[in-house]
Write a structure and sequence with these properties.
homodimer
Amino acid sequence: MANRAQRPLALISVTDKSGLIDFVKSLVSLNFEILSTGGTAKHLTDMGIKVTDVSSYTESPEVLDGRVKTLHPAVHGGILADRSLSSHLEQLPLINARVIDLVVVNLYDFKKDAKEKGLPLEKAINHIDIGGPTMLRAAAKNYVHCLPVIDPVDYDDVLRELKTESQSLDFRKKMAFKVFQTINQYDALIADFFRDAIGNASQNKDAKEHLPETLTLTLDRRNTLRYGENSHQEAAIYENSSSTGGIPSATILQGKELSYNNYLDLDAAIDVISDLTPTPAMTIIKHTNPCGTAASSQLTAKDIFLKALGADPKSAFGGIVASNIPIDEAAALAMTEIFLECIIAPEFSTEAVNIFSNKKNLRLLKYGSQTKAERIRDQLQFRSICGGYLVQTPDNAEQDFTTWQTVSKVKPNEQILRELAFAMSICKNVKSNAIVLSADHRSIGIGSGQMSRIDSLKIAINKASELGHQLKGAVLASDAFFPFRDCVDEAAKVGITAIVQPGGSLRDQESIDAADEHGLIMVMTGRRHFKH
Amino acid sequence: MANRAQRPLALISVTDKSGLIDFVKSLVSLNFEILSTGGTAKHLTDMGIKVTDVSSYTESPEVLDGRVKTLHPAVHGGILADRSLSSHLEQLPLINARVIDLVVVNLYDFKKDAKEKGLPLEKAINHIDIGGPTMLRAAAKNYVHCLPVIDPVDYDDVLRELKTESQSLDFRKKMAFKVFQTINQYDALIADFFRDAIGNASQNKDAKEHLPETLTLTLDRRNTLRYGENSHQEAAIYENSSSTGGIPSATILQGKELSYNNYLDLDAAIDVISDLTPTPAMTIIKHTNPCGTAASSQLTAKDIFLKALGADPKSAFGGIVASNIPIDEAAALAMTEIFLECIIAPEFSTEAVNIFSNKKNLRLLKYGSQTKAERIRDQLQFRSICGGYLVQTPDNAEQDFTTWQTVSKVKPNEQILRELAFAMSICKNVKSNAIVLSADHRSIGIGSGQMSRIDSLKIAINKASELGHQLKGAVLASDAFFPFRDCVDEAAKVGITAIVQPGGSLRDQESIDAADEHGLIMVMTGRRHFKH
């Protein structure tokens, strides 16, 4: 074929010029002719490299500010022709095309030029690349004949391959893979941008859109972690490329790098205090469970902390503290009395930061105001299982006691209802089966992660007794219904006066009868809060 | 502008012809001229609709089997021209273009035509669409002027919008969003296909590739679930579009639809029995924790089940059973004696299936041989937290007691080591802090999900005592090191004779001294197994 006798042809059009000149000079020394456009052509020419401009190759006038210059049969025929078919090679002259052997293109930087600059959609679209992805996808499709290069980091490997006698198809496949992978991410970013521009209002019209037939997640690595849940596991923390806010975006004021388990505990901590907001509250988390939580509109930050700590001082050792109010000097002094892994709060006073600076390893995190809103409204919860992914909307139910139903003969006053709501807000965030005992807006006994509900209650009672808390007059929250009356009997035995639970068991009446026999208050929420 | 005086122009090229004729007839009645290609043009002409073929519009010969017919400035200028710029409109005639107002295109079905047919890469590439995505992306970029339609389900909405006096930009943005979202998924599918073709061997060369800077997940919804962890949460189960095997692919032989919590428990169940394989084993899961587990090379399926059940018969109520051996008639009869939610096993005999058929609600699942392999080698573990995603490689460490170190004066024999390995295999899959007591390859007491290790031990001991298990001579596994000697003292008190733990505490020596004082065996694995 006449075409094959010609010199090999490389089409080059890049936004990222790093390493370009050396690379192209090497191509020229390998006898390549260079086809190029606009800024790239000028850059190469300025450096003394001879290039043919695409518009003189296509013999098509450059119009529409260059929007269509590469969208031409002479370009795409050259890329897409199947060199193993003589028909294809014979037809190329009909469209003024030559075979193109190498396509070196990278995309307009939509993220930097549009997203990060906060451009409105009508301006952002100017940074959507049409010609680039098309040339790259075409070359990737025809990878056997036309090598696509989307990333300057690959220039050395490309040259090595081009110099090799028998070029490897594996390398070409890898380059083609990278094209589809990169464009895939590029379009996900643009889709996210459109989604945001459309706004959440119209998005949420149809609930099913949350859980569509195909769900694409494009995640940017925020940090590689030292290891995962255990040291023989690798791990990293990722963010949605469109998200801002949340724990990964919290400002780290001091301390060692966060570990996988820190992140997991921080997540649980944020859940607990978000559910207690707007009441000032703090919680201490160990192994994703709150071992001490307190809330108060009257107390200082220091006293709220001491109250939460007093719930279970032994378990708090090495824990994570989350606060929904600023940390001042007095609170900081109290916090440095014990060993903590991490403290997260909306604000730290300058004095507090100074005090903490003596504890080099303690991590201090300042979170933005978005933390709760995001958790509650936007984010789907993902969890991988063997061979699949469970995806669900978050448990964003609030404890609104005005909707609860009192089923016992004894009726609660508002103070008791508020205490029950406090206990349930914590219980919702304890691993199931969960029982939380509380008094005066402090947890005094928590039973978590048991296979049997009565065991969770026994653990909660034992903890409260061991720690010297007064059970008489305390309240109880259960994350799910009581399958039998045994929990109510056990609660009455130790002097608990009020119980909140979802209800819904076939044997609800047994539990209600038990409450009435013991003169207990029982309230049903109608809403289960399993968390695993 | 002369061009604007012309009739509106729609470019139509679709693989999915559903609803096409009615739609196009409506367009014609709205005065649209129709531009079309190949199969679509023929289909429309056959139905009596007048169309202009793209090649007569572009005046470019149809070559290369149609690979480049729409990759032409006359097409893309018509789509991309900014109608608000007179320069753009004036330049269109220079490239023989007219403004195109509507682009109706859907993509070659790569999934159906290439992936599901199992085509090799070199044939599959023929099903990669280049022209289609380019026209759609161009129209989506210029959505203000050119409306892209990628999905026949939108035809009615499109017609409604076209008939409206003042067309809404919101609708156009939504259509553009759908384009980028769909093409994003399309390219993810192709990228996955290339990744598979390249093969895992070359993929795994660099461990960091597991956790790349950008991670794209394209998930196909397998089932919409009735609800999530709780009834006020929506949920669905997804699969990687490239994955086969695992729990979502298990064959459901009978029973109600699986719930979110069933899937979570099944995942935990598969972990436990996978870690005990090849020894025949069964486990019963409640709230993601194993409440009873037994393994034996001598016993029948029935007796292994009864042994596991006997570990904690009360907690087993409503549990999930997983087995790594087939379920026969005798085992099925024993299993139907109690209320179980679900049974998963590699095989069920015909007699067993008959017996279970009397329990209509009981879910029976048959899993393929890939279940373990996939879990262990391939799948990254994802977990969303507030604003981000934790991603880690799985905890695939096996309990190889030949690598363990005996630190106590009393040394274990092989029988004891095997018992310790059994206990640790379970402990690894219990929520942290985890303590497992076992005897004769059966768990007899499990302490899970506590904030303090000694509490987990106390729970395990209490459970074992309540259930009448013999603690004397039992062994203990701990998922992490002992921070103090209290656990060892407590274990000795009840007659436990051997302990396995990772070691690694600053106070290891205290625990070792305690073991020696009590004449206990203590073995260290060097490997922690937190699970949250």
